[in-house]
């Protein structure tokens, strides 16, 4: 990872700082890589990060050495995505990809001495860029829309009725 410049959002930088503090306590072999990543990164506000920079929750297309292209979403934890879909930033590859720009490559040296090179081919989706595009189009972020309203005349899936409980109709704790 030496000699490569990364761009981290303030949020991603804070995540890596916390990860570094926790891993130092256990003498984790990833500590030197985390230290280099933080030292070689410039920090940008979340709203100002370029759309071709890999951030947490970005969908990235990358290659390891001369292998086939892989598509993954950079996630914080392993349980944040279905199996095979996410790439935790706590892994060697996830950490390397975080903050890279499309077209950028970087070598990874593992504690066992093995090396591999990662090329970030494309950032297919970046949440920060999607939020900016939604705001520019006058939409709610993430395309959220109201599916059901309690005051609506009709209910979803053809259901209908009223909310049974009214003011002063509280059955109290014995109903539980």
TrEMBL record:
Q: Which stretches does the entry tag as region Disordered? A: 154-176
Statement: the UniProt record of this protein carries the keyword Transferase: yes
Q: Which residues form the signal peptide?
A: none
Q: Which GO terms describe its molecular function?
A: DNA binding; kinase activity
An example GO biological process term is: regulation of DNA-templated transcription elongation
- Keywords of this protein's UniProt record, alphabetized? Kinase, Transferase
What name is this protein filed under? Nucleoside-diphosphate kinase
């Amino acid at each position: 990872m030496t000699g490569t410049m990364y761009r981290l959002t303030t949020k991603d930088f804070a995540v890596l700082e916390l990860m570094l503090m926790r891993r130092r306590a256990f003498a984790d072999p990833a500590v030197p890589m985390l230290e280099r990543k933080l030292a070689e990164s410039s920090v940008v506000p979340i709203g100002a990060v370029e759309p071709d920079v890999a951030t947490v929750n970005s969908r990235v297309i990358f290659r390891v050495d001369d292998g086939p292209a892989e598509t993954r979403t950079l996630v914080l934890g392993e349980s944040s995505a279905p199996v095979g879909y996410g790439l935790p930033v706590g892994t060697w590859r996830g950490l390397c990809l975080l903050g890279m720009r499309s077209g950028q490559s970087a070598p990874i040296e593992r504690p066992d001495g093995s090396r591999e090179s990662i090329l970030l081919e494309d950032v297919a989706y970046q949440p920060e860029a999607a939020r900016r595009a939604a705001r520019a189009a006058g939409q709610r972020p993430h395309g959220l829309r109201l599916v059901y309203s309690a005051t609506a005349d009709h209910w979803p899936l053809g259901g209908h009725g009223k909310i049974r409980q009214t003011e002063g109709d509280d059955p109290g704790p014995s109903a539980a």
